[in-house]
Design brief:
The complex is a heterotrimer of chains A (about 325), B (about 325) and C (about 525). With about 325 residues, chain B is mostly helical. Chain B has 14 helices and 4 strands. Chain B has a domain of about 230 residues. In chain B, the strands form 2 sheets. In chain B, strands 1-4 form a two-stranded antiparallel sheet. In chain B, strands 2-3 form a two-stranded antiparallel sheet. In chain B, a hairpin with a 3-residue loop joins β2 and β3. The longest helix of chain B has 27 residues. In chain C, strands 6-9-10-3-11-12 form a 6-stranded mixed sheet, with helices on both faces. Chain C has a 6-stranded mixed sheet with strand order 18-19-20-15-21-22, sandwiched between helices. Chain C has a 4-stranded antiparallel sheet with strand order 2-1-4-5, covered by helices on one side. The two termini of chain C are about 35 Å apart. Classes of the chains: A mainly alpha (about 325), B mainly alpha (about 325), C alpha/beta (about 525). Chains B and C meet through α8 and α9 of B and α10 and α11 of C. Chain B: One of its GO terms (cellular component) is plasma membrane. Chain B: It comes from Alicyclobacillus acidocaldarius subsp. acidocaldarius (strain ATCC 27009 / DSM 446 / BCRC 14685 / JCM 5260 / KCTC 1825 / NBRC 15652 / NCIMB 11725 / NRRL B-14509 / 104-IA). Chain B: It is a multi-pass membrane protein.
Chain lengths: ~325, ~325, ~525
């Protein structure tokens, strides 16, 4: 397995380093501490979500509702904080919200056997709607400093959220690589029939990625609110695409069965670095979506080109 | 035909629900159900209706098109820009519809030539086209307006005092689509491909061509929707189509188009469109915000597909499983079959 | 030898599908440490028997005894837990996961800490490596399954059974993709299992292998058990006779070739790793048979001719002119049609009506100006209905509701309607009841009389002998020989198909077979 790991993740690291070097050459300002911290903070959010998306895509599913899930969490936490609820409790409830949303997806997809794309398309609008209802369309800001301290904290110069990203990454990697349940998730995505024959309950296994996704959305939401300091009813809208793009760039194969947490994080890093670079080249933010969409296409086509078996054209 | 009887029952049920719905809102507010109001209110959701017609074909063949909203934005913006630069508005409208066809063609080719699932491909183009729309109009002020009155009458004008022009166009196009699906060789091929792509291939059907055409039509209808919406709102914006794919897909599924492909009717798409549309208009009247409305739409989407799944469990249908991942939806369910 | 007690017994097994009795009262006994071969031609019922044992199907009648106790085997998973493992013709692994993980799927070595099961990778790798080491198979257990060639993937499948200390190992034509050397390795593994007390059921038509591995043979024919013999009592010849040997009651036709130029000529068609140097001719009005057993690759040849998956080398000549067939469209343009082997997958759209299944492939002639009218569809349906005797309620009836025979007639109908000049039929009466069978034969004869060049691929020996004027026999992608219809016998065909006595058998150079 380690031989396989070397392939995609390694080339991603190389890519990132080359890109950074080029950028350094072009505009030294790029790697200024202030800028770097911004990039890292962004990456931490996308990275956490991308890892969850990776898990979901491995089981041949997809989650179009993550962004709204995360956004909802930020608004819930923010509202609670503004109403005097203690920080730790607000965070706990926020994360629980993410879990519940993920759980809803999980139930609809695994127990009722509804197609993930349709379900998450539906829950996307559900969660988006809830976002408006929670705050009546208002923004959340002026949060207590005890909460903001989390996002702005630094350990040895590394921003707090990045530490959280690393922790989540470690936990998830261990889960996916070292636990039997994690292996079952890969199995179900690789060959559902064989998995069933080997005694796995594909239904129950499929619940896990979506619930985890919800949990991660909760964590990411708390972090996001904490370092940004505010949230709006449309927060997180762009994160749907970014999480998928990061996962796909990171080597998660949309046909299922393949992908790693490390890849997802590296994908997030590369994506973050590229979008930041676009800003430096004065590309208006509106181009971001197009670039990300294009990257997804390229990554998926490249991946499917590698796996093309007998494809009979009509 | 797969579930012919089911389709009829479903259509009847939706038609019944529609009547109940109108009755319900009528009780709450008699003005709402006056003929003038009802007819006029259709102008709000007919753009969705146009796109639902073509989406029906896409879904029947086992695919899906998430990019319809973005295509609508891009077509609308291009139309506006062309007009701003001196092109005759009608020509601009025509060109934007052709652009839609081109965008749809790109979707189709992406899907049939590279083997990417329709889900992923159209998700990517959703963002690419949507972004392009914003980019193009960003050079202006975010929206383009000031169109000639003759064009605007497309959106708000009426015939015979009450019947919106848009509705007439929709009626004609819906009939054309209905005819296409029900009475032409191409329509038959669409059903065949959706029912058993392998058998279609082995029977000499040009599967790739059949599928590509569905996406081209989808793009066309996005352009048409943009033309009418631009007329109705008297402006086009870079984000005019955002989130429309939800309503379009929901309309189709509510209308009984089977999410796994192989069955569905234009009548169903029509009924689904109106059920959803009238619901949205009614909620509007009750001062429910548009965001809350989208919650309802999302819930209806899940309910519709859940019901389809349940009714599939009760009826004795033999599903021929598809080979590979050309269907967005089939693939993602195969992990749990 | 190991204690010779029966591990698994099947008594009086009866199984039907769609009203057709496929297994008619079969007894089978599997004894610890011994390998029993189950032979018979395709359609004899062998695969149904093993599927019952593997928990895939439930018997209609009869008993299964496991170590003396009557049991039911409701699911394949249950069979696994009993220790019954099946190795199929093709491996079905998890491509992205490592070999070791594939071997231990569902039984990962782990340590439990609270609710979490921690994978014990080291143990997994070492135990897996140990297995392959002991068997002298050079596989890196850390490599991903998809990186292995098919033969090695097959080894992994068998390693699964070994790791789980299988009590009953069913081998269902496992050597089709293996070279001689790999077969020997396989047998080594199997013998090891037998020494540990496993009972082996070996389904194969490679008679040489049967004689090498097994101590007993059960012969099935037409769903019956013909007999149970010790290997010592038999010779390959005698075995072949036992597998066949029916009275042929059906009328053959008399055929005289009139044409000079073959309608279809195939010259040296090859597809790397699939089939090699296939050459044949079919004259107008002639019915040529292509016989062979599992893995003979006849369908691949047919699909190459029909434009589904083109061959790498060789030529196709139609009507005396070289033809390029790179798509189904090309094939149809040349008047070549194909009735596929898998009716449900490639033949008909089950949930669509008869009328649509017939009309849409013929849209050019049925629909004028692209307009589809029911009246045109019904006219075609009526025509085909009467010509082929399709029994149905109405043209709008979904094909799924028809019997197998009538479904097959629909497949025929869609092609007959366009008056093809070449018809390739792949297992034309599979899943068809006896009555419809003879009707289909009549249809085939009529088509030939009308001048169509017919190529029939079939594993049903009586069928081949009844229908065909000439019989070509393929084995593992190569042509073994040709038999004239008048002098053909089931034995002769079977001999060529199994490679017995013809001088060409398994004793090759050990090079890869696929």
């Amino acid at each position: 397995m380690s031989g396989l790991l070397k392939r995609r993740e390694f080339s991603l690291i190389v890519f990132i380093l080359i890109f950074l070097l080029v950028m350094l050459f072009v505009t030294p300002r790029f790697l200024q501490p202030g800028n770097l911290i911004n990039i890292l903070l962004n990456i931490s959010t996308v990275g956490i979500l991308a890892m969850g998306q990776c898990l979901v895509i491995i089981t041949k599913g997809i989650d179009l509702s993550v962004g709204a899930n995360m956004g909802l969490v930020t608004l819930v936490v923010g509202t609670l904080l503004l109403n005097g609820v203690p920080t730790w409790l607000s965070i706990a409830i926020g994360v629980a919200t993410g879990l519940v949303c993920g759980g809803l997806n999980a139930v609809l997809i695994s127990l009722l056997r509804l197609p993930p794309i349709i379900v998450t398309l539906g829950t996307l609008s559900l969660f988006s709607g809830l976002m408006y209802m929670v705050t009546n369309g208002q923004w959340i800001q002026n949060l207590p400093s005890s909460f903001l301290a989390i996002g702005n904290s630094k350990v040895l110069g590394i921003p707090g959220p990045v530490i959280v990203l690393v922790i989540v990454f470690i936990v998830l990697s261990v889960f996916m690589e070292q636990t039997v349940l994690g292996r079952y998730i890969y199995a179900v995505g690789n060959n559902p029939n064989a998995a069933r024959l080997a005694g796995l309950s594909t239904n129950r296994t499929v619940i896990v990625p979506y619930v985890l996704m919800g949990l991660l959305a909760g964590i990411a939401g708390v972090l996001y609110l904490s370092y940004n300091g505010f949230s709006t009813p449309t927060t997180g809208a762009d994160l749907n695409l970014e999480s998928i793009a990061a996962a796909v760039i990171g080597g998660t194969n949309v046909f299922g069965g393949r992908g790693t947490a490390l890849g997802a994080v590296l994908g997030a890093v590369l994506l973050g670095v590229i979008t930041e670079a676009l800003v430096f080249f004065h590309l208006p933010a509106v181009w971001n979506d197009a670039v990300e969409g294009l990257i997804i296409l390229i990554a998926v086509i490249a991946d499917s080109g590698l796996r093309r078996s007998q494809r009979v054209a009509g | 035909m797969r579930g012919v009887a089911e389709n009829r029952i479903w259509s009847l049920a939706i038609a019944g629900l529609l009547i109940l719905e109108i009755g319900f809102f009528g009780v709450l507010s008699p003005d709402f159900v006056s003929p003038q109001n009802l007819l006029a209110s259709t102008e709000n959701f007919l753009p969705v209706g146009f796109m639902a017609l073509s989406m029906t074909l896409v879904i029947i063949t086992g695919g899906i098109d998430l990019s319809v909203g973005s295509m609508m934005s891009l077509c609308g913006v291009v139309m506006g820009l062309l007009w701003q630069h001196g092109v005759n508005i009608w020509l601009a409208a025509l060109l934007s519809i052709l652009l839609g066809a081109l965008l749809g063609f790109i979707n189709g080719q992406l899907i049939v030539r590279t083997g990417i699932q329709p889900l992923i491909a159209t998700l990517a183009t959703l963002f690419i086209y949507g972004s392009l729309a914003m980019v193009l109009v960003g050079q202006g002020e975010g929206s383009i307006y000031g169109f000639p009155q003759s064009y605007l009458s497309l959106g708000t004008g009426t015939v015979l005092k009450w019947i919106p022009i848009q509705l007439i166009f929709y009626g004609v196009v819906a009939c054309l689509f209905g005819f296409l699906l029900k009475y032409t060789s191409y329509g038959r091929q669409v059903y065949f491909v959706g029912n058993n792509e392998g058998a279609a291939l082995y029977s000499g059907l040009q599967v790739n061509r059949v599928k590509t055409i569905t996406y081209v039509l989808s793009g066309c209808m996005s352009g048409v929707a943009a033309v009418f919406m631009g007329a109705y709102f008297a402006s086009v914006r870079g984000d005019m189509g955002t989130n429309y794919e939800l309503s379009v897909i929901t309309s189709c599924l509510v209308g009984g188009v089977n999410v796994f492909g192989g069955s569905g009717t234009i009548l169903g798409a029509f009924l689904g469109t109106f059920l959803l549309g009238v619901l949205q208009q009614g909620l509007n009247m009750l001062n429910v915000s548009s965001v809350e409305q989208s919650v309802v739409t999302g819930a209806m989407l899940i309910a519709a597909v859940g019901l389809q799944q349940l009714s599939g469990l009760f009826s004795r249908r033999r599903r021929v499983s598809r080979q590979d991942s050309s269907s967005a939806v089939e693939t993602t369910t195969s992990a749990r079959d | 030898m190991v204690n010779a007690s029966p591990v698994l017994q099947v008594k009086n097994l009866v199984k039907s599908f769609s009203g057709v009795r496929v297994v008619k009262g079969v007894d089978l006994t599997l004894v610890r440490g011994r390998a029993v071969a189950l032979v018979g031609e395709n359609g004899a019922g062998k695969s149904t028997v093993i599927k019952v044992i593997a928990g895939v199907h439930q018997p209609d009648e009869g008993d299964i005894l496991f170590e003396g106790e009557r049991i039911r085997i409701p699911t394949p998973n249950f069979a696994h837990r009993l220790g019954i493992f099946t190795v199929h013709q093709e491996p079905s692994l998890m491509p992205e996961l490592s070999v070791a993980e594939n071997v231990f799927m569902g039984f990962h070595p782990h340590r439990k800490m609270g609710p979490v099961r921690w994978l014990n990778r080291r143990e997994m790798y070492s135990r897996a490596a140990e297995v392959f080491d002991r068997l002298d198979i050079p596989i890196d257990v850390r490599s991903a399954a998809h990186q292995l060639p098919i033969a090695q993937q097959q080894m992994v499948e068998i390693a699964k059974a070994l790791i789980h200390d299988a009590r009953v190992l069913i081998l269902d034509e496992p050597t089709a993709t293996l070279s001689q050397r790999e077969v020997q390795t396989l047998f080594r593994v199997v013998r090891e299992l037998m020494e540990r007390g496993a009972a082996v059921l070996f389904v194969s038509h490679r008679l040489q292998e049967i004689f090498e591995l097994c101590s007993e043979v059960s012969v099935m024919r037409d769903g019956h058990l013909v007999g149970h013999f010790a290997v010592d009592e038999l010779t390959p010849d005698r075995l072949v006779s036992l597998m066949v040997g029916r009275e042929i009651q059906l009328q053959r036709r008399s055929y005289e070739r009139h044409a000079d130029v073959p309608k279809l000529e195939v010259r040296d068609l090859s597809k790397k790793g699939v089939f090699h140097h296939i050459s044949l001719k079919v004259y107008p009005g002639e019915i040529v048979g292509l016989a062979g057993l599992v893995g003979s690759r006849r369908t691949d040849v047919a699909e190459a001719l029909f434009g589904i998956a083109a061959a790498d080398e060789g030529e196709i000549w139609i009507d005396g002119r070289k033809a390029s067939v790179r798509s189904v469209h090309d094939a149809l343009n040349h008047g070549l049609v194909y009735v596929p082997e898998d009716r449900h997958k490639h033949g008909v759209a089950l949930n669509m009506s008869i009328a649509w299944n017939l009309a849409i492939p013929n849209r050019a002639s049925v629909y004028t100006y692209g307009i589809a009218r029911r009246v045109d569809e019904w006219r075609l349906t009526e025509r085909m209905k009467s010509q082929l005797q399709i029994k149905s309620r109405s043209p709008e009836q979904p094909v799924a509701e028809l019997s197998g025979g009538n479904q097959q007639k629909v497949v025929f109908g869609k092609w007959v309607a366009r008056q093809p000049s070449i018809m390739i039929l792949d297992e034309p009466t599979r899943g068809v009841d006896v009555g419809a069978k003879s009707e289909i034969y009549r249809v085939i004869f009529n088509l030939a009389e009308a001048g169509v060049a017919v190529l029939v691929i079939s594993s049903d020996l009586p069928e081949i002998l009844t229908l065909c004027d000439r019989i070509l026999v393929m084995r593992e992608g190569e042509l073994m020989g040709e038999i004239d219809g008048k002098h053909a016998s089931e034995e002769a065909v079977m001999r060529l198909a199994t490679g017995v006595g013809a001088g060409r058998d398994n004793n090759g150079d050990g090079g890869p077979r696929s």
